[in-house]
Specification:
6-stranded antiparallel β-sheet, about 190 residues
Length: about 190
């Protein structure tokens, strides 16, 4: 199995240029390429302020921890991200303002280059099979998920993969919840 495991605590931290938060990159594909095809990360929003616009990028953001954030863009987006594990997809072309709904907010982010890839992000609780032709990311919100090699991922751990020669299977313990991002090449 060609899985790349990660733990939130060991992901490299990059502060935002505007000082409003930080990003922990899970992966950017292809590696080392400035114009990524797809990217997965976890961001901490520490204060109100602008979100960077990403021209030609589709985004999905999912609240992991905190009271949430209100995302607004003049006439385009007006969304309150306040339910843990509920993804929200939007165009990265829009310059957004983020307003915290309490303290800091921690969010799971998937970005895909429009015309190259697309992402489907879901909250999952049941055994899941990754299609062989698709890349993806699994991030555990609660409980434990078993990988095909018999090892386990716990809360705040995850894995990502590129397209495989065969499908991958992920099995949860009772009560386990994860975020599942399936990345499809176009």
């Amino acid at each position: 199995m060609n899985l790349n495991r990660f733990d939130f605590a060991s992901l490299p931290v990059s502060p935002w240029r505007n000082g409003g938060g930080e990003t922990r990159e899970i992966t950017s594909q292809p590696p080392g390429k400035a114009n990524f095809d797809w990217r997965a990360s976890i961001a901490t929003i520490a204060q109100d302020g602008p979100f960077s616009a990403f021209q030609g990028i589709d985004r999905s953001i999912t609240l992991l921890e905190g009271d949430g954030v209100h995302l607004r863009s003049a006439g385009l987006i007006d969304h309150r991200l306040q339910h843990v594990g509920e993804p929200f997809a939007f165009s990265g072309d829009a310059a957004l303002e983020a307003f915290l709904l309490g303290g800091s907010s921690q969010d799971f982010n998937i970005m895909t280059r429009r015309g190259c890839c697309s992402a489907d992000v879901q909250r999952i609780t049941a055994e899941t099979i990754a299609p062989a032709a698709h890349a993806g990311v699994l991030y555990v919100l609660q409980g434990e998920w078993q990988l095909e090699d018999g090892s386990w991922l716990g809360q705040r751990e995850g894995c990502w993969w590129q397209p495989q020669q065969r499908a991958l299977r992920f099995s949860p313990r009772v009560g386990a919840v994860a975020l599942w991002a399936e990345i499809t090449a176009r």
